[in-house]
Amino acid sequence: QVQLVESGGGVVQSGRSLRLSCEASGFIFSSYSMHWVRQAPGKGLEWVAAILYDSSGQFYGDTVKGRFTISRDNSKDTLYLHMYSLRAEDTAMYFCAADFGDFKIDYWGQGTLVTVSS
Amino acid sequence: QTVVTQEPSCSVSPGGTVTLTCGLSSGSISTTYSPSWYQQTPGQSPRTLIYNTNIRSSGVPDRFSGSILGIRAALTITGAQADDESDYYCMLFIGGGTWVFGGGTRLTVL
Q: Are the Cβ atoms of B98 and A44 closer than 8 angstroms?
């Protein structure tokens, strides 16, 4: 079955960097686009970034553009989110998500919590 | 900046029908935006309900349906059950590889 396991979250000081990882299994990782979605405590879902199956395109939400970088290593079935210049408002649960096409998210991980302290 | 609006909260009686909607701050939603809908209960990851406006994801009961109503996307629950009490989010493909979620609707079944 499809599994997405995020890691790398934690407490980090404002202005610092952090890298999240998402290990995928149960499907052909290299064939599908992937997303990061976040959810601040008590708030709604926010789309963060997406990457095409072959890394030929990366796309970002306005609030993270220029500060976050999405990447993937298809040889390791792993998705990454490199977060720079972190701010308090980046505090959230970060979900990794798989996009099997047809303009939707098909599978979600359990999330990893990032807390940015000022 | 694209803002997607949803009703903050809604309620329905058990067995009743409720329609949640999703709109754009400027303009109308069409199938071009490929609206999808997600259900999330507290402490859980979201679950995909509907995609491409009106296609149910695998395993989703047929009491959930999607449509375009006027200038908004809609999620209708027919014969609501207690465990439908959740947060519901729409997501739109706004082009250029980018997506946006609505603010979510908290549905109460009472």
A: no
Q: Determine, for residues A108 and B47 on separate chains, whether the beta-carbon distance falls below 8 Å.
A: yes
Long-range contacts of B60-65 (CB under 8 A, 24+ apart): B64/B37
Integer Cα distance of B83 and A4 in angstroms: 25
Chain A residue closest in CA terms to B32? A103
**Interatomic CA distance for residues B18 and B56, integer angstroms:** 17
Maximum distance among all alpha carbons in chain A?
A: 40
Q: How far apart (Å, rounded) are the C-alpha atoms in residues A43 and A89?
A: 12
Q: Return per-residue pLDDT of chain B as tens, 110 residues.
A: 889 999 999 999 999 999 999 999 888 999 999 999 999 999 999 999 999 999 999 999 999 999 999 999 999 999 999 999 999 999 999 988 999 999 999 999 99
CB contact under 8 A, A44 and B87: yes
Which has the closest alpha carbon to A23: A6, A35, A39? A6
Give contacts of B48 with chain A, Cβ < 8 Å.
Answer: 104-106
CA distance A104 to chain B (A): 6
Asked if A46 and A65 count as a contact pair (C-beta separation under 8 A), the reply is no
